[in-house]
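We were asked to recover a plausible sequence for a given structure. The inputs and outputs are reproduced exactly as logged, with field labels preserved.

PROBLEM: sequence recovery
POSITIONS: 114
GIVEN STRUCTURE:
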């Protein structure tokens, strides 16, 4: 990712947090999802391999987060990661091509495709 894009993303994130009076740690990704009217649900513990999913139904969005890893920090990271997919400018159109309804995030996935 180009440095200019990274700075733009950082400024947008800082502005969002300031606008919603979330300038102090810890920042709660579940609260951010609620502000954005994004439903969050835990995935069943029996479903492994996917750490998080951003799901779209029409104009409504939801996030599913992994529960097979018992760490509260991992759950929060998974939700925050999916929020990143949702909030990055133009990213929604990229990860939901041709009317697809879900995007899965997997640990260790690497891609050169921005």
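RECOVERED SEQUENCE:
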């Amino acid at each position: 990712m180009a440095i200019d894009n990274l700075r733009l993303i950082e400024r947008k994130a800082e502005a969002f947090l300031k606008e919603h009076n979330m300038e102090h740690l810890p920042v709660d990704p579940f609260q951010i999802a609620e502000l954005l009217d994004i439903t969050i649900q835990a995935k069943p513990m029996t479903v492994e391999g996917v750490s998080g999913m951003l799901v779209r139904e029409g104009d409504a969005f939801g996030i599913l987060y992994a529960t097979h890893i018992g760490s509260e920090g991992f759950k929060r990271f998974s939700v925050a990661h999916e929020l990143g997919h949702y909030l990055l400018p133009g990213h929604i159109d990229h990860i939901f091509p041709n009317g697809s309804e879900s995007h899965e995030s997997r640990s260790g996935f690497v891609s050169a495709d921005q």
